[in-house]
Protein 1
Amino acid sequence: MKKSINYFLLGALTVGLFAFVKKDNNVDTGFKNSFTETLKNAKAYTLEVAEKMPAEDYTFKPHDSVRTFGEQIAHIGMSSKLLNTMFIKGEQVDFDPAEGAKLEKITGASKEDCIKMINANFDEVIATIEAMSDTDLQGTFVFGFASNKPELTKEQGFLFIRDHVTHHRAQAITYLRIKGHDAPQYRPF
């Protein structure tokens, strides 16, 4: 009888320990929460940059070979949404670079349209990560824009979006300074 009680207690303890240490794939381990805050900050910082440039200077570009200020801001919004839709959400997108450039030119001519786009598209990317679990973030996709077409995790996809935003926002900040406008204070995260 004593042996049966010991086996029962050992079994109950084992089951209890497994229940205690079981990983819940829907529990965030840190990346999602911290990166959501990073995206919210990136949105606010990008909006500050967009607001600093007067509407009449949205068509300014320092050289014929580059985008205008407005096209840079529109590109940030459009590409963030495109990358999120294609790679993170895994949805089929008919992507035509020439049509994208045309839309950037149209949207980029309007400060108001650019600001609306930044708000809407950042909100969509933020909502996407907020709805994901750790398991979802470890899902993979093939990054077709790179010549070697690497397989990346969706977490890496979000990091790429952030890097891409940073790249183009920095260009827009340079345009602000060339035109003699104050740039917003740098925000690291």
Protein 2
Amino acid sequence: MFQLFFTKFIAFFTVIDPIGTIPVFIAVTAKMSKDRKVSVAKKATLAASGVLLFFIAVGEVILEVIKIPMSNFQIAGGIVLFLFALTMIFGESKPEEEISHIDKKEDVAIFPLAMPSLASPGAILAVMLLTEKSKYSVQEQVLTSLIMLTVMGMAWLFMLFSSKIFDRIGNSGAALISRVMGLILSAVAVNHILMGLRAFFEN
């Protein structure tokens, strides 16, 4: 049970990347009051959690409606996750890329904080793959949801204490951590691809 919890926690911590969200949060809330920053952090966390819970609840149903086997989605999802990981390692880091997308006309709690910073494409794929109904019991799916919410709770705390954390690690530190997370994510992605291929050939 502990190994399952630890594995899924690492997977979610990697794809959600709450540390990489810190410089993004600082950039979009630079001129806001303390109360406004707290409100933005809360709204972003709730919105991102809602998006991921939605895909946990109905993501697989959507695949069934459009008649896409879960093994196919797992292979495709693994490939997308791997490409996503490569951009984290070799391309712009998460903070640099998402800060460049800031549009002052948008609700920054929704874009870029909730999506794509927290509820990223990688996170959406991960929650669907880690709650596959044919592989995981209802109890395991609930546990996975709680693990995801735990990581979201950490992201919320990181945003609340972002200034103090950023003073210690800086933008370069956040970028370095993001690249390490990308390396871990690439290994997770390869595992999903191999599992999907095995399920495909077994069927």
Protein 3
Amino acid sequence: MKTLVIASLISAACLLYIAFSPTEVNYDDAFEQFISTYGRSYSSQTELQYRKMIFEENMRQAEKLQKLNPDAEFGATPFADLSDEEMKLRMGYVEIDNDQSDLDLFTETSDSLNSIDYRGNMKSIQDQGRCGSCWAFSATATFEGRYSLFRKANSKLSEQQALDCSGPNHSCNGGHFTAAWVYMRTHKFCTLSSYKYTGIKGQCKTKCSPTISDKGYTKVKNNESSMHKALQQGPISIAVDATTWKTYRGGVMTASQCGKKPNHAVVLVGYEPQENAWIIRNSWGSRFGENGHIRLKYGTNTCAITHDSAFPKI
């Protein structure tokens, strides 16, 4: 019965699309190329038409974004047949009150904007899947990057441990990177090999291969100069508005139409002076953007990048 209802809704959506969609642009070839490039396979002709409808709307949005962001490229990506609601499942930043009496605040400013790039210190790009676990990937990747700078080597850590064990996070329904560090202050990070990622909420495991704990965290003042200064010591977890990232393919995105309501946690891993741009590590797989990364223009609070940033104490 439920399947029949869903099929009926999809059919109705397709009929509305046929009746009211603009006809001046034909995306048939682009959609066929998308299917071939990303190996898409749909269960029925009805679903294929539904996904094509979404794809075409996403391409129209990509064209608008392209005009607003001339230094970036937008178009077909692995997410081009996903709706906005489906993309929300790949976000998950939630603001929480995690105040601590001994919390430090990094407030220094940077006079010179030197080049910084920690991509070589980071583990391979991962894909959080259809789970709002970005905060866990941000927390572990930032810790891994900073720890590698101090100890020159470290194991791949478990995001699933953060999902299952750290509160007041909400697992796949969202959370905050600092809450993961608060939990790890009194517990040890498990290795990924001993606590594998499933992308669903599970029972907190008490047995795994433990590595090291953090010593709390430091918040960074809400301006890009302080963020650059803090970045000189290692990667930083940040919150951004990723609403318009679905069709990003590469280049430098500017503040135009990027959004001002943070909904996604990522990792700041570098600054590029030639383009005056931040380098940001995402958790949507290596086929997103520039090998799993996106670049945002410095100095314009692009995508609300100054909203919330912090790093763990090693």
Protein 4
Amino acid sequence: MRILGIDPGFGTLGYGIIDAVASRVELVDYGAIYTEPGEPIPDRLLKIYMELKKIIDFHSPSEAAVEELFFFRNVTTAIQVGEARGVILLTLREMGLPIFEYTPHQVKQAVTGYGRSEKGQIQRVMMKFLRMKETPKPDDAADALAVAWCHFLSRSYPGGARKK
């Protein structure tokens, strides 16, 4: 099973792709889609859509795992990330991928065993789990790998995933 993990964002959207066969997990790819702050919002959303489609076309994942939004203090940021997340979900559905969603707490708990772990801890654990030679960057990409890992564990030990 090839899993696409996504850490939704408006300026930076992290993605991570892993292959899971039985209990063996291999890193396929990871990175980020960036949009420019000065660009019109519709253009930024279109870029997310087009870049995400390219990633899906190139890697052909079988399932997608997306981190749910958490509380934002800044309403404008929350709306923009919500809009980006809508584009992400639409793109995944259009591409025919089953979509599973996880809260940030579920992802951190699955990866580190502690639901309030720090970004650096997520990076170090993912680096170890996926036998990476360097720290996955940006943070959003490490988080996306963690979302994919969480989904792998959820599929191996059902009970935590919410399929959409």
